[in-house]
């Protein structure tokens, strides 16, 4: 229920414009968002790098409504890639297809995505396609399928809470393009589409993770980014990696900026690849609402900023 409230708030545009003017909300959001500019994102990437942690840079934005906005988002990604290359930085990029125009048209979105992926390939880096709500799953995977065989520098996120994900993972393994960021899922989905109970989501996560770590999947080129802050699942992954002698090229860990920094540092110190998702930009409101929806205790954190500015 908690998540339902915040995911619905994340879509409320009137509230968004009002809330974004309240300084204390931004101060609370700043725990999860590196800042409003690319330079803020770069600063955060450098801080992480100093601790042996790699980055995924996300220019915040979603559900754009005009081709001009989708074009602007694409250009922003291209500019970011050029700026990063000039600085000798090669973080992965995270993109949301609705930021590149998926709501306007698939062809337009595909054109924009190809431009970003091609520039990223030239820069020697990877584009990770975020997974949005289930209204977009089919189209996101269809687009990934068209690009992935041609561009090995692409990955896609899969959400363990969706019933369909078991089949999607199998198909991607079979097709030899299972380069997957496995997350639990951050949107509000009805019970005929996604597991409503956390323990079932966690069990699904472990099943999919084990499948992607298996020797059979690896023989078909599978790669898994284990994107979770769930310590129990991370420990489970570490046990399987050791038992099955999974090579370091077949997996990495991923977490979000500002969440479980202790675990991020621990994994880096143990020599694992850990990559942190660093969002920046002025469109931080929906991202922040989803982070609030994941953890009720975060509301106290916002309240603290109201009381003690
Ligand atoms: C790198 C990365 C990329 C992601 N990409 C996507 C995507 O493309 N699509 C998508 O739907 N979702 C995405 N997510 C979000 C994901 O689906 C979950 O909503 C989110 O990670 C919380 O789930 P969890 O796996 O950490 O497990 P949980 O069981 O929810 O949390 C485990 C522990 O992590 C900590 N924690 C988790 N969330 C928070 C929070 N918001 N604030 C403070 N502490 C917290 C708490 O200590 C909690 O006990 C991504 C997550 C990561 C890490």
Automatic annotation (TrEMBL):
InterPro entries: FAD-linked_oxidoreductase-like, PRODH_bac_arc, Proline_DH_dom, Proline_oxidase. Gene3D superfamilies: 3.20.20.220. GO terms for biological process: L-proline catabolic process to L-glutamate. Its cofactor is FAD. It comes from the Bacteria. Coiled coil: none annotated. It catalyses: L-proline + a quinone = (S)-1-pyrroline-5-carboxylate + a quinol + H(+). Substrate binds at residues 96, 290-291. FAD binds at residues 131, 159, 184-186, 198, 228-229. Pfam families: Pro_dh (PF01619). SUPFAM superfamilies: FAD-linked oxidoreductase (SSF51730). Keywords: FAD, Flavoprotein, Nucleotide-binding, Oxidoreductase, Proline metabolism. Binds 1 FAD per subunit. One of its GO terms (molecular function) is nucleotide binding. Pathway: Amino-acid degradation; L-proline degradation into L-glutamate; L-glutamate from L-proline: step 1/2. Residues 43-303 form the Proline dehydrogenase domain. Its EC number is 1.5.5.2. This is proline dehydrogenase. It comes from Thermoflexus hugenholtzii JAD2.
């Amino acid at each position: 229920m908690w998540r339902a409230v915040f995911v619905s708030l994340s879509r409320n545009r009137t509230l968004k414009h009002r809330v974004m003017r309240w300084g204390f909300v931004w101060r609370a959001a700043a725990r999860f968002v590196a800042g409003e500019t690319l330079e803020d994102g770069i600063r955060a990437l450098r801080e992480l790098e100093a601790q042996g942690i790699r980055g995924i840079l996300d220019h915040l934005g979603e559900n754009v409504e005009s081709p001009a906005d989708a074009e602007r988002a694409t250009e922003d990604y291209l500019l970011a890639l050029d700026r990063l290359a000039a600085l000798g930085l090669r973080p992965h990029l995270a993109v949301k297809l609705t930021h590149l125009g998926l709501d306007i048209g698939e062809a337009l979105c595909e054109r924009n995505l190809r431009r970003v992926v091609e520039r990223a390939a030239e820069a020697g880096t990877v584009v990770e396609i975020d997974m949005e709500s289930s209204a977009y799953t089919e189209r996101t995977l269809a687009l990934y399928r068209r690009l992935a065989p041609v561009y090995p520098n692409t990955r896609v996120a899969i959400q363990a809470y969706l019933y369909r994900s078991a089949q999607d993972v199998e198909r991607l393994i079979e097709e030899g393009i299972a380069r997957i960021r496995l997350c639990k899922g951050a949107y509000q989905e009805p019970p005929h589409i996604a597991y409503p109970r956390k323990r079932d989501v966690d069990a699904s996560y472990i099943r999919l993770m084990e499948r992607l770590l298996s020797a059979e999947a690896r023989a078909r080129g599978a790669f898994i980014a284990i994107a979770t802050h769930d310590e129990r699942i991370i420990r489970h992954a570490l046990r399987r990696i050791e038992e099955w002698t999974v090579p370091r090229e077949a997996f990495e860990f991923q977490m979000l900026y500002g969440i479980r920094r202790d675990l991020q540092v621990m994994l880096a110190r143990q020599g694992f690849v850990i990559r942190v998702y660093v969002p920046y930009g002025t469109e931080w409101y929906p991202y922040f609402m989803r982070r609030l929806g994941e953890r009720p205790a975060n509301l106290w954190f916002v309240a603290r900023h109201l009381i003690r500015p």
